[in-house]
Amino acid sequence: MCPEWRRKGIGTILYNSAYDTLKELKANVLTTYFNVTSENPNEFYKNLGFRKWWVYHEAHYMNKRPMFDMDITFIPYEDKYFHSYSKLIQDCFYQLRKENDIKPYIVPFTEKDRENKASTKDSTYLSFEGKELVAAVVVKDGYIDTIVVSPSHQGKGLGRKATEFAISKALEQNPTSVHLSVLGWNKKAIELYIKLGFKITKTVQFYRQFCDKEF
Ligand SMILES: CC(C)(COP(=O)(O)OP(=O)(O)OC[C@H]1O[C@@H](n2cnc3c(N)ncnc32)[C@H](O)[C@@H]1OP(=O)(O)O)[C@@H](O)C(=O)NCCC(=O)NCCS
Fold first, then answer.
1. Which positions fall inside the N-acetyltransferase domain (predicted)?
2. Quick one: average pLDDT of 73-99?
3. Which residue from 73, 174, 176, 209 has the least number of CB within 10 angstroms?
4. What is the DSSP letter of 107?
5. How do strand 132-140 and strand 29-35 relate by DSSP bridges?
6. Ligand 1, atom 9: nearest CA belongs to which residue?
7. What is the pLDDT of residues 155-165, one digit of tens each?
8. What is the spatial distance between Cα 165 and Cα 209, in angstroms, rounded to a whole number?
9. Pocket of ligand 1 (CB under 6 A)
């Protein structure tokens, strides 16, 4: 809304007409999101019945090409690792999804996911200790995604090594923009990324409301 037209009830009228359409679609839950800037519309959404849900940050790598001491081996994903990879993802994201109420709490994996994973296998890297899959990262076009360390191996420096590996890979792919996203809840991961040279460049707030409201 242009600044001079604000606080005149127009936003609420627009929202109410959108809500009527959504009601016809029989939506159970409405979600919305916005970039967090100095002009936060928090109160606007709260008054309409929305409640804060979760926040994510986008972060960009700000350092020059680093020289990491790579004493960890990552190998490209292969279909034979599908079950151990799926289990690792489910174990690693259960707490995050539960505490942020992102359903389903256990990430589902189907045969379709298996095919998709196989078709993007070149961007997924796995690290083993003996035969056990202990860490994984996805790196595509400079975007780092899904850095995971098996819960039983966390807190021992593997996450840092996996992230360093991912940064090196991402810089090879796209030297001008290495970036990632992280949930605001994930303080541990945020601390790790900032230590390694990432800077938060954007914050997005999600709100939701359940549709038991009548206008
Ligand atoms: C985030 C994650 C990859 C970190 O892996 P890790 O092996 O536990 O991390 P490391 O042992 O290498 O620790 C690296 C840094 O992370 C932070 N960290 C790790 N454990 C922490 C803890 N229990 N409390 C606070 N910070 C912690 C610290 O900054 C630490 O640096 P330090 O050792 O210099 O203090 C791992 O916790 C994980 O897989 N989490 C679940 C999946 C996930 O959330 N992935 C990130 C998606 S964006």
1. 1-75, 72-215
2. 97
3. 176
4. P
5. unpaired
6. 159
7. 999 999 999 99
8. 40
9. 92-93, 96, 147-149, 154-160, 182, 186, 188-189, 191-192, 195
Q: Which residue has the higher pLDDT, 212 or 18?
A: 18
Which ligand 1 atom is the nearest neighbour of the CA of 161? Answer: 12
Q: What is the pLDDT of residues 90-102, one digit of tens each?
A: 999 999 999 999 9
What is the phi/psi pair of residue 101, to 5°? 50, 50
CA of 17 to the centre of ligand 1 (A): 45
CATH of the domain at 113: 3.40.630.30
CA of 172 to the centre of ligand 1 (A): 24
Task: Report which protein residue has its CA nearest ligand 1's atom 43.
Answer: 148
Burial zone of 124 (CB within 10 Å; 0-12 exposed, 13-18 middle, 19+ buried): buried
Query: Is there a domain that residue 67 lies in?
Result: no
Residue 69 maps to a domain: no
Distance 153 CA to ligand 1 centre (A): 10
The residue whose C-alpha atom lies closest to atom 28 belonging to ligand 1 is: 192
Regarding whether 79 and 44 lie in a shared domain, the answer is no
Q: Could you read off the pLDDT of 58-69 as tens digits, one per residue?
A: 999 999 777 788
